[in-house]
């Protein structure tokens, strides 16, 4: 059994076909077939069923693959450790954060880190609606703080970071705020919904809570969205930490909507399985994971 054979098996399982696996591994399909055949002969097991169009793990294959995945993870961990032990302080740490994420704790940790690693620049980007995930998978950032929507745990490591309540609100003087009953999507269509545009290209689209066929005002950030809602020009969902004072003061009120309940959004620290974090990026990841 060779490590390369396990990588071939993993690629076939995660990609769902020999063709896609060959593209990822830059190997021909016959070469992949031969690697699997050799692995099956060495183990005495039939790992993949050939009865369907796409390769499917047999019961024995599933058990074997679970262990193989563990071996590959351990090998990757050793590579990352070796990289960290041999690496010097990197010039820049790149981080993308969801626009819904509270920044207080993050900035505190970054401040502490800058004292320990003053020569490393921090590049902090704010993204919305799948933009962070796109940056991560394109290799543009070291890790992200975002939801796991559209991301596979086979491709990334993830650790829970914080949860944020997204609350539908309006100024008390704006139309739907005066209703004494729960409003349906149809009843909300005459009112302007303010939404934040995604920063990605739609590959990891996370748009949600949009009332179908309603009037809409699209902005680039939550600051603009909040100002528009406060100006009685529309309504929208905003992170609780951004509007806590206004809710307490009665400057904003929570809307009771059938199609838009208060939603709890779980944010994670997420990084790709492949590729090692630099010394400073790893230290930032560890501090955020335990802070």
TrEMBL record:
- Does the UniProt entry include the keyword Transcription regulation? yes
- Entry-linked InterPro entries: LysR_HTH_N (IPR000847), LysR_subst-bd (IPR005119), WH-like_DNA-bd_sf (IPR036388), WH_DNA-bd_sf (IPR036390)
Gene3D superfamilies the record matches: 3.40.190.290, Winged helix-like DNA-binding domain superfamily/Winged helix DNA-binding domain (1.10.10.10)
Q: Does the keyword Transcription regulation apply?
A: yes
- Give UniProt keywords alphabetically: DNA-binding, Transcription, Transcription regulation
Q: Where is the HTH lysR-type domain?
A: 1-58
State the source organism's domain of life: Bacteria
Q: Please provide, alphabetically and separated by semicolons, the GO molecular function terms listed in this UniProt record.
A: DNA-binding transcription factor activity; transcription cis-regulatory region binding
Q: What family classification does the UniProt entry report for this protein?
A: Belongs to the LysR transcriptional regulatory family.
What is the official name of this protein in its record?
LysR family transcriptional regulator
């Amino acid at each position: 059994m060779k490590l390369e054979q396990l990588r071939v098996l993993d690629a076939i399982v995660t990609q769902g076909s020999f063709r896609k696996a060959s593209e990822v591994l830059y190997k021909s399909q016959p070469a992949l077939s031969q690697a699997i055949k050799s692995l099956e002969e060495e183990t005495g097991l039939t790992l993949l069923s050939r009865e369907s169009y796409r390769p499917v793990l047999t019961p024995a294959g599933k058990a074997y693959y679970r262990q193989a995945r563990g071996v590959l993870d351990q090998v990757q961990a050793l590579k990352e450790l070796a990289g960290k032990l041999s690496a010097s302080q990197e010039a820049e740490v790149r981080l993308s954060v969801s626009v819904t994420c509270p920044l207080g704790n993050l900035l505190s940790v970054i401040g502490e880190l800058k004292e320990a690693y003053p020569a490393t620049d921090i590049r902090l980007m704010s993204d919305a609606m799948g933009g962070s995930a796109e940056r991560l998978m394109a290799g543009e950032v070291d890790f992200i703080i975002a939801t796991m929507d559209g991301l596979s745990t086979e491709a990334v490591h993830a650790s829970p970071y914080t949860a944020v309540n997204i609350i539908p609100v309006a100024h008390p003087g704006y139309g739907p705020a005066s209703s004494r009953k729960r409003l349906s999507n149809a009843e909300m269509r005459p009112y302007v919904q303010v939404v934040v545009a995604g920063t990605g290209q739609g590959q990891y689209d996370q748009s949600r809570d949009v009332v179908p066929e309603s009037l809409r005002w699209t902005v680039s950030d939550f600051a603009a969205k909040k100002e528009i809602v406060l100006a009685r020009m529309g309504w929208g969902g905003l992170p609780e930490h951004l509007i806590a004072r206004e809710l307490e003061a009665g400057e904003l009120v929570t809307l009771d909507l059938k199609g838009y309940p208060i939603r709890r959004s779980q944010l994670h620290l997420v990084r790709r399985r492949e590729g090692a974090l630099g010394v400073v990026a790893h230290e930032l990841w560890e501090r955020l994971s335990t802070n």
